[in-house]
Amino acid sequence: MRSRALQTASRRAALPRPSTSPPIRLASNLSQRPHSDNVSFPGALKSAFSNKLAFQHPQEWTALPTYRVVDQHGAVVDPTWTPDIPEEKIVKLYTDMLYISILDIIMFDAQRQGRVSFYMVSAGEEAASVGTSSVLEMEDTLFCQYREQGVFRERGFTTKQFMSQLFANKNDPGKGRQMPVHYGSTELNIHTISSTLGTQLPHAAGHAYAQKMRKLQNPESKSAVTAAFFGEGAASTGDFHAALNIAATRSCPIIFICRNNGFAISTPTLDQYRGDGIASRGIGYGIDTIRVDGNDIWAAREAVKRARELALEDGGKPVLIEAMTYRVSHHSTSDDSFAYRARVEVEDWKRRDNPLTRLRKWMEANGMWDDVKEKDARDVMRKEILKGISESEKEKRPPLKAMFDDTYEELTPDLKEQMRKLREIIEKYPDEYDVSEYEGGLESLKEKK
Length: 449
Ligand SMILES: Cc1ncc(C[n+]2csc(CCOP(=O)(O)OP(=O)(O)O)c2C)c(N)n1
Ligand SMILES: [Mg+2]
Prior knowledge:
The protein is an alpha/beta fold. Helix content is 39%, strand content 8%.
């Protein structure tokens, strides 16, 4: 009689097995042919032999071009282009950009008034977030840095959701355990933001690999990609390089979207790198790459639309988009950028090239927008945001118990002990610790039997 293990093994062998691994490329398949013009071994497949001793000097190469559809005056420069969405959707894109620009101004002031501890605005970079997000599907999983509030808004994040996170009240999905602007949304398929630069990138590459595997196992499932947003400063982390290389070698369906805004806090790009931006790195890793004018929402949309198709080709492959979009704002509420850049430089950008003005000019030229609509939209949004602030400020904070939750499915003995000690201290010094503003007060720290 055959052993049980043997029976199971043979049954498994009889089942049709999904092919989850890419075809194996044996190094021995590639051999140097006699009299060949090219060196042929894995890693440099089309390299022609040369008898000229010549180093490549990057400065002799032409910089990669920057794709744009509409110029800074709102005039169309790509004669083959026509808008791919109806008027109401165009207005929605514009009002999403407008919304975050108003939210940013109000929240920056709210921080100055001491109502929130920290905030980051995305002024000048609204098209790069709203535009790219607008051509991704809800099934696509997103990993953001911290300046992509436009992505959240475009996908449907509400004023109440922004405010609950910023004010860390009981409706905050992060239960008050994150600093302001670390949004996340399960329904919108966006992972929670981490300020530790670059960490989202290997996570995103791994996620895209899982999507690829899932699709191989279930070919009927809907195709989806991963999109990973980051600043050019984050591209100096080791994680960036690890993510690009693993995504390239494992052919993962991922779109890397870099906002090159000219600064990593106070470090201008000139001091960050000497190569041709971040786009040249994509090519170095064997990744399909494009540089776009990030202040042109139409260019951002066209690039991501095509990138999404490419990312799904042949079972998956990575794509890199570098969106050039100057950071008009200070880095955060903790920064004064006029300590390291001239005020006039910022004023010039604001006047000469603003993504909102660009789309607005194009919409006005096409009879979709005017001063009255602009004023009405601004008034409505301003009121909605101010109402959101006052409502959120009144809400209770998350229960104190939340600080112990979610790391383990059940509280460990250590955590239970810490929770008990915390309760004891609060009970001992009631004048020092007012817990009435926390949902459930001290009750939440009592262990349920
Ligand atoms: C690993 C790590 N190193 C340094 C920092 C400090 N830091 C926070 S934001 C930032 C600049 C990032 O610049 P960039 O990626 O270009 O994004 P931007 O702020 O320009 O949108 C730095 C250095 C950090 N948060 N994490
Ligand atoms: Mg930057």
